[in-house]
Structures are given as C-alpha cells and as structure tokens.
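in:
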C-alpha cells in the first residue's frame, strides 16, 4: 500500500471525485467525513492539517482510503511545547474517523499505522531478559523516588514472576521504540483457559510527550487479545482515568481483614517465623531495640527454643543492662546448642562485663576447646586473667593470639600493658 500526504487545498480539490467515490462506498462514512463538509472546515481552522491517502501500487492512480488529521501545538505543564495529532474534525464534528473502500481494511489500517520512526517488538526466547530489564528500568525511573528501598524488592519480585510466566507461555510483553530508544513497555499475564489478559505493570519514558505511548501498547495488547479469541482484557486494580477510555467496566473488590478480638492471641504462625526473625534481626541491627525486643519475644512465645531469637534477645538484654535476663536467655540457648560459639562468646563477654572473671575464663576456655583458633577468645581470656593478677597466663594468651594473627593490634597493646 502506497501512502501519500495531502496537505493543501489545491490538491484536496483535485481529489474530490475520488473522495466522493470512497465516501459513497464506505458503509461507515458520516457527514463529517464528506468532502463538502471538510473543505469548508479546513479553510477555517488555523492549525496545520494533512490527509493520509492510500492507494494500491501498480494499479490505477485512485485512492482507496483517506485519513484526515490536524496538528496541534500543546504546552507542557513545566514549560515547553510538543505536537499532538488530532482527527481533522475534532472540536466541532460530532463524529470523526477515516474513509476506506470495503475490502481494503486489512491492508490500509496497518499501512496508516506503520512508521519507520516507531517500532513495537515482542518478547521471545532471545530477548526475554532484555525486554524485562527495559520494562523494569522504565518503571523504576518513575517510582524509585517514591518507593525508596522498596523499589528493589518490588523489581526483584516482578522480574522473577515475569520470567516464570514467560517460561510457562503466559506472558505478553511488548516494547515501543523510537529508533533505538525504548519509550514504553507493558506486561500482561495470559490466562488461556479463562480467555483473559491481565495487565500487570507498565513503564514509560516520562520525558516523551509526542504520543500516548501507554495507550498505544494497551491498544496493541487488546488487538492481540481479540485476534486470539480472548474475552476479557482486565486492567486489574485502580481507577486511573486512561482505563475508562477503553470502555472499562468497574468491578468492586472487597478487602477483608480478620483480626483477633483481643491482643492476647498474638502468637505467630510457626510457618512465618523465618520471615519474622529476619525482620527482627534487621530491627536489631538498625538499633530499633523496642521493635526488636517485641519481635524476639513474639517468636519465643510461638517457639520457646528458637535459637536465633534466644541469642538475639540475650544480646539485646545485655545492651539494656538487664544482665540476669541476658544470662538466662544465653544459657537457654546453650541448653539447645551447647557448642554454639557465638552463644558461648556472648555469655563470656557478659560475665566479663560484670567482673565475673572466673566464669568468663571458663567460658572462653570452652570456646577454645571447640575451636582453638578463635583469636578473640584468647584476647578476652588474657584480659580476664590479667584482671585476676595472673600476668604470666595472660601473656601466654596474648602471645597465642599473635601467633594466630600476627597483626592483632589488641593483643600487642595488652602485652605492652603488663
């Protein structure tokens, strides 16, 4: 199909007979697409206009379709301009559209839509990683500042589920390009059995204003759905205005939360303890001691012998100066895991902090029986011996630490202090 552009009244006048022939042959034509109405309107409007005119190559010179358009200069909110394409009759005509002789629709419409400047690519085995990363990068450019640290977590989940769906033939993911620059991408899940496409995520270049890139890709996906016999294109949650431009119907979704009547039933389900301990340890590292203590306590209410919770709460109690509670928790840990190096080390340090040097020495000795190369245990035991006035034994400990770690500054300093 050959496409010509008519953009002056002289040429428009010359094709009147051809225009009238197509107008009379198109069963969907309306008065606002007639030559007589358009010629009057185009004379009046100040904007630039053009008519895409299609003909079949190597046949007679007559056109088989016309698509009247006009160019509008729009101003961005932050300043600057961009070009917007409208139907030529827009703003006064109740109906707009294009004229096509019956039988040429399948050739003409793709020809009008074709552009050497713009291209839509679709996901396949060779480009799946590339397509997914482009989509996520475009999405991130809009949401990184708002979602902060959650952005990486969301992207990781989305990346994994998109790969999973591609591997199971239930992903539709097109990317719209301008030259070699990606402008927009959308991902849809495909439910073959329910004949439904479900829109999941989109990302677009927010600096590109010339075309509604998101709408273009949604329209592309809807066309794919129709061609493949799908019954529903589901935009999922959200009432964004653009969704209604496709004739979307609202469906109310109820969000129900079941809670205990009292706060007494606060036991955690044992299956979520791995997530709970991970988050609690993170609170502890961030020095959010109140949240960490609550987390450790809830975990221990569900599983009283949870090793990581016993250790974490023991360390936290020592930080708060509650030495007896800390000692009890660490001893409970060692009942379960008697060879826990970190449990023994924390208990030894707890004794040492209370000047209970004999108990500290005994605990450090247990560590060294289990693991003879723990430099910190030699240093700490040397300090405890030094505090008891056992200098020779302390020197032996510091020297052993230096044998294991020749650049151990702590051992060197303590040796000099004797």
């Amino acid at each position: 199909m050959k496409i010509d552009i008519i953009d002056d009244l002289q040429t428009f006048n010359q094709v009147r007979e051809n225009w009238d022939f197509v107008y009379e042959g198109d069963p969907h034509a309306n008065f606002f697409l007639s030559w007589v109405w358009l010629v009057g309107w185009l004379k009046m409007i100040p904007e630039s206009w053009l008519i895409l005119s299609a003909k079949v190559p190597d046949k007679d010179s007559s056109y088989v379709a016309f698509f009247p358009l006009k160019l509008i200069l729009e101003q961005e909110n932050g300043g600057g301009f961009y070009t917007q394409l409208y139907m030529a009759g827009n703003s006064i005509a109740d109906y707009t559209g294009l004229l096509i002789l019956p039988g040429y629709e399948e050739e003409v419409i793709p020809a009008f839509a074709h552009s050497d400047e713009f291209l839509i690519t679709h996901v396949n085995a060779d480009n799946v990683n590339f397509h997914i990363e482009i989509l996520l990068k475009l999405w991130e450019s809009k949401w990184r500042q708002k979602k902060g640290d959650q952005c990486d977590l969301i992207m990781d989940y989305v990346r994994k589920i998109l790969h999973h769906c591609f591997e199971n033939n239930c992903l539709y993911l097109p990317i719209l390009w301008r030259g070699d620059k990606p402008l927009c991408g959308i991902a849809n899940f495909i439910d073959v059995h329910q004949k439904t496409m479900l829109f999941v995520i989109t990302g677009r270049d927010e600096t590109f204003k010339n075309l509604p890139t998101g709408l273009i890709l949604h329209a592309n996906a809807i066309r794919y759905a129709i061609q493949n016999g799908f019954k529903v294109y589901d935009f999922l949650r959200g009432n964004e205005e653009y969704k209604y431009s496709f004739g979307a119907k609202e469906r109310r979704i109820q969000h129900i939360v079941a809670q205990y009547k009292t706060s007494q039933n606060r036991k955690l389900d044992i299956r979520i303890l791995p997530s709970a301990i991970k988050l609690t340890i993170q609170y502890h590292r961030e020095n959010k001691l109140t949240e960490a203590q609550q987390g450790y306590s809830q975990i221990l209410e569900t599983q009283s012998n949870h090793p990581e919770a016993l250790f974490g709460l023991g360390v936290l109690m020592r930080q708060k100066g509650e030495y007896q509670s800390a000692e009890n928790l660490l001893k409970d840990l060692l009942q379960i895991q008697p060879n826990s190096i970190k449990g023994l080390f924390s208990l030894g340090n707890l004794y040492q902090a209370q000047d209970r040097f004999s108990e500290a020495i005994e605990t450090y000795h247990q560590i060294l029986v289990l693991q003879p190369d723990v430099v910190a245990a030699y240093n700490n035991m040397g300090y405890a011996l030094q505090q008891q006035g056992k200098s020779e034994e302390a020197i032996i400990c510091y020297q052993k630490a230096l044998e294991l770690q020749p650049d151990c500054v702590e051992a060197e300093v303590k040796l000099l202090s004797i």
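note: The two ends are 97 Å apart (CA to CA).
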